[in-house]
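Worked example 2:
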Amino acid sequence: MKLKVTFILLTYNQERYVEAALVSVFEQDYVNLEIVVSDDASTDKTWDTICQVSKRYPDRNTVLNRNESNLGIGGNLTSALRVSSGNILVLGAGDDISRIDRVSRHACEYEANSRLFACYSDFEEMDDSGDILDRGKSEAGKIHSVPNFIMYGGGVGKGATYSYRRECFDWPWPYPKNIWVEDRLLPLRALLLGEVKYIPQQLVRYRLSLTSVSRSIPTHLMLARYNLRHLSELKKTLQYVEQEQSILVTRKELRNSHMQLNLLFIFSKLLGFRPHSDNNFLRVFRYIVLRIHIIICRFFSFLYSKE
């Protein structure tokens, strides 16, 4: 029997786009699919649209969840997890569109490899109107190593294209509600548990919208690499791995990872202001600091690789 997959669609105030997002999920060609739509107390007509569209697909195994109050991305995700039951969890936002075979492609990878704990793919960018802005969003060439994941805040690739085994949400402890950037924590967990796979196909249309869930959150909190709360969670995870003998990470990788994490803490202090400031000087300063950070991280990674 095929793996049971749950598609979790997280929504909040996306009445303009949620119907297209929902239809792309309901039209998936994978049979053993549970669809969980979790709305984070939208104040517009998003929830009404969700209810109307779901009625068009009575044969689909669908769970609709609406939070009584706004919980944020982390809280909404954990709320959706509680009512889901799939072994594999595909994540999506209420303004993105998934290709009809997205779930099938991901499920095929998990069925072929029991050591696989996360998958991500290429994507296309679209604007508010749904017009394609960039068809060439390739994620090829990303290095799947713990130090490299740490350097980018806990993962690589576009979070909107990811899927995970359920274990990633429970190990080494339940996913924290106060972590808003799940795609820079779950990929690291997946890599520590086993393998992460890149699928070289554009399976998602990612909407660059000013009203998206992530863009409604202050940018200094969404930049996982420079968010002290997020970095503290990564540090706690690495400390757990050091004590857990069953996790196959070399001492060299751990030393490199801690070095990358310490650099992130340092640069997060330098970027202690809101990144989207109207002050042109601060914008230039931020850009320079970001470039310097990446150069330094890559230099130290090179040194560690020569040991």
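Residues 225-305 form one domain. The chain has two domains: 5-216, 225-305.
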